[in-house]
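Bench notes, afternoon.
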Amino acid sequence: MLILHFSLILTIIPSFLSGQPVLTDQIIQTLTRALNFFSLHINEVNLDAGIGTRMAADQLRSYTMCKHCKSIKDLVNLSEYVTWKILESVRERQPDYYTQVSFLLKSNMYSNIVPFHYHQHRNEMNIDDNCSSSPFIEKHSDQCLHALMYTKCNETNSCMKLMSDPYACRYSLTHQILYSIIAKKSQCFHHRLSSMNEHRLIAKMLRESHRIANEHFQERDRDLFMEQIAIGGLVGWKEFFQNKNWFQTIIDWQHPQEGCYGNDTITHMNKREEMQMSHDCLSHRTSVAIAALSQILRYLLSRDI
């Protein structure tokens, strides 16, 4: 009954969203279908899947308070429900992994709402496009985030080099910025990046996003691109949300029948925590799609309210 109820989320967006009613409606429908896919395949997902659903719930919650926001409230409730189901399933199937990274799915983990602003009008600094030859290892990133969140500040000293590498790119770069976001919630004050360094990292990530778009969104880059949009929204950079074609491209990647996101043209997966699911769907890719779409929706809502 719960899945059926949420499949009926309003498809006519009220007049207060008049700036982009059709696009906003599309985003809500796409998000709802992706969340319903997860709810139907809970035992196939990994815990990373819940990061996207947690971001969606936390970031959209502040838009549920007006009397005309029932469709957004239903979306947040569905995100909360799916996040809870993922946590329960992973705790039973992968207890060690659950212990290590379940904190990333805690309620309000991503509740800090950063208003959208333009940032590139600042005096631009030199941004090095060179990439580190060191491979990105998600396990190391998980350990750093865990130590940071649980205020084991001495244990995070070795992470400083990892998280301040000036040559980081792609997933290493997005995780550097995520580390910076979570550092602001921790008591490890000396691990917080200066505003200048954070600006440099985000500007480099934006440049990567444009490069991916200019190369016509190659299959190998789609997961990363959606992760970049999600992180760009968390830090409130309007620059990530100025091309409607980017929005429509992410919508179009959704599998029309299942509602998931998958690997459509190649078989190689370069994410350690990716999981192949039914119907050629991918757990991490669907999660970052949910996170990216929720930030696109937040951008549209914040602009029109």
